[in-house]
Amino acid sequence: MAKFWVLLHPEAAEFVDSKGHMYMELDKYLYGLPPAGSRFHVFVKKIFTEEGATISSADKCALMIKSKFKPGAVIKIGMHVDDLLMTFPTLRDRKYIEEVIRKHFEITTQYDDITYLGMFIKRNRAQRTVHIDQEGFTRKLVSEFGSSDLKPASTPAQADLFECDPASPKMSKPQLFVSLIMSLMYLARLTRCEILLPTVFLSTKCSSPTEQDNRKALHILRYLKGTPARGSYHPRREGTGRDEAEIHRRLESWSPHGR
pTM of the prediction? Predict the structure, then answer.
């Protein structure tokens, strides 16, 4: 690379060392490099703290800003690199935060229908409900780890889930089992709690999985194949004067660069 650079810029020859290497200092962080995400995160948090945000002691990616238009209410912000999930007590708060962010970035916004970290979050204002699923991730998971003739199952596990056959042969490619279980764990933790028990149990087999363990993991896939759009449903709470949808009011996700 150094030789190619010198051909284009002969004046740079004096900066090539005895081993043919040339080192450069970047003026800006490049998207995709390991430090870029961290530095971007720090920069965005600085923007919000200048607006009075407080950072959660339990999670440095969770912030709150007091509403400027509704006393006692707060704007809630969840950060994942350059993807943010935010809730607002008023539309004026939303407009205010968007204006703050646009001083630094071009942004893409989503409101009632949001895609965030593989999740699809849909708010039904008329029924006051919120539905969260990972249908796209689920279908991809079934396609990647399941065969074309995989038959749907009605339950995530069978009665023999906790039975271990010592005669079952070890898997020839245990890394495939580990990859499947870790992917199932991501799904189970976020939106599919009904597969959490068998997934957690099978995760204890990752060090030396057997064909029996793999069959049980594939059974979870069979169940997911028949229920790809199932997810977490948040209906209105009766008799409380508020509802689950209210907690997610003014849902918004945004990403700089239009990613």
Answer: 0.72
Give SS3 for 113: strand
pLDDT digits (tens, 9 = 90+) for 135-149: 999 999 999 999 888
CA 1 to chain centroid, in Å, comes to 36
Query: Is-contact 77 66, C-beta < 8 A?
Result: no
Q: Which helix (H) or strand (E) holds 108?
A: strand 107-110
The three-state secondary structure class of 65 is: strand
> How many angstroms from the chain centroid is the CA of residue 25?
32
Partners of 145 in the beta sheet?
none
Q: Are strands 113-116 and 107-110 parallel, antiparallel or unpaired?
A: unpaired
Is the separation of the CB atoms in 101 and 108 below 8 Å?
A: no
In a domain, 129, yes or no: no
Q: CA 122, CA 132: separation in Å to the nearest integer? A: 6
Which residue range is the domain that position 222 belongs to? Answer: 135-231
Number of domains in the chain: 3
